[in-house]
Amino acid sequence: MKALNWEVAPDAAVIESIVLALDKALADLSSDVRECITIATNELLINSVTEMNALESRAPIQLTLQWDDFGVLVHVTDFGRGVPQTQIENTAMPCVTDTCGRGLAMVHLLVDDFKCQSNPSGSKTYIISKHL
Predict the structure, then answer these.
(1) Of 9, 46, 64, 114, which has the maximum CB count within 10 A?
(2) Res 2 pLDDT > 90
(3) How far is CA 33 from CA 73, 89, 96, 121, in A?
């Protein structure tokens, strides 16, 4: 299994370079899989940056990418408040007048598995996976 780890400041300007690096790392996979993973990871990183900035926190966001011949696994960890589990489990696309929730709905559509876990340190880890 191949793996890469990033630890980034909660800064929206950094997201694009991280997502490009992630896409480059997955260059051997099909473009469909790469696009699904990069778009879903981008959404999770945006949520993390938005949350950390709302809390005025400079705690780093951790990103782990693992992949092999069977699939891709991504962990995004931050020290934000997290998203209610009901929102993680809700796979329906929000109403067009809703002010939030479309990113997580897209994540559900793009990956095979999506969950959130609370860690003893107080951080939250969003986990997505895509089978090959």
Answers:
(1) 114
(2) yes
(3) 12, 22, 27, 32
The tokens of 35 are what?
A: 């696009």
- Listed residue (63, 113, 60) closest to 88, CA to CA: 113
Output the pTM of the full model: 0.89
Query: Residue type at 2?
Result: K
Domains of the chain in start order, with CATH, are: 2-131 (3.30.565.10)
How many whole angstroms separate alpha carbon 99 and alpha carbon 70?
36
In the chain, the percentage of residues whose pLDDT exceeds 70 is: 86
What are the backbone dihedrals phi and psi of residue 33, each rounded to the nearest 5 degrees, phi first? -65, -45
Half-sphere exposure of 13 (CA within 13 A, CB side): 0
Tens digits of residue pLDDT in 104-126: 888 999 999 999 888 888 889 99
Write the burial class of residue 2 (CB in 10 Å: 0-12 exposed, 13-18 middle, 19+ buried). exposed
Helix pair 102-110, 31-54: axis angle to 10 deg:
150
**CA gyration radius for the chain?**
14
